[in-house]
Structure formats: C-alpha cells, structure tokens
Amino acid sequence: MLFCVLALIFLIPIHLALLATVFDGFIHYHEDWLKSRYLYKRKGLSDRHRRAVTGFDQLVHMVTYVVIAWTVT
C-alpha cells in the first residue's frame, strides 16, 4: 500500500490516491487471505496445482493495478 500511494500521490489528487490505495490494500489482503486459506486446507495438492493457485493470485494483483491505472487516468 505504501508503494501504491507513493506512486500515485505525485500524479493525481490526494483523495484519489488514497482511495486507490485503500482499494489496493483491500483487494490484496483478501486475495492473499483466500489463497492462504485455500492452500492450508488442501495440503496434499500437487506442486503444479499450488503454482497455478499462486499464479492466479499474482494475476489478480496485476489486474488490480490495471484497474487502478484505468480508473485514475
């Protein structure tokens, strides 16, 4: 969240930077929580499946940044 606000604070109005940062934090926290909970309950998953879940997690993180960039521009 710190890097998100630092990246945006000089480019857009402060209230938009703070809203984008809260959105970023909300999505990242819940996505990581869901991933951790899913993987914890399924300890016998193959490495391939675990990597796919982690890859999907990273995709959600990247899409979050795309949504933020699209929204604030």
Would you mind describing this structure in some detail?
The chain has 73 residues and is mainly α. The protein has one domain (2-72). The protein is built from 3 helices and no strands. Helix 2 runs antiparallel to helix 3. It is elongated, with a radius of gyration of 15 Å. The mean pLDDT is 92.
Tell me the structural class.
Answer: mainly alpha
Rg over CA atoms, rounded to whole Å, is 15 Å
Largest sheet entry:
none
Helix percentage: over 70%
Task: Output mean pLDDT.
Answer: 92
**What is the element string, with H for helices and E for strands?**
HHH
How many domain modules? Answer: 1
Report how far the terminal alpha carbons are from each other. 19 Å
* Tally of alpha and pi helices: 3
Model regions low in confidence, pLDDT < 50 over at least 5 residues = none
The fraction of residues in strands falls at under 5%
Name the assembly state: single chain
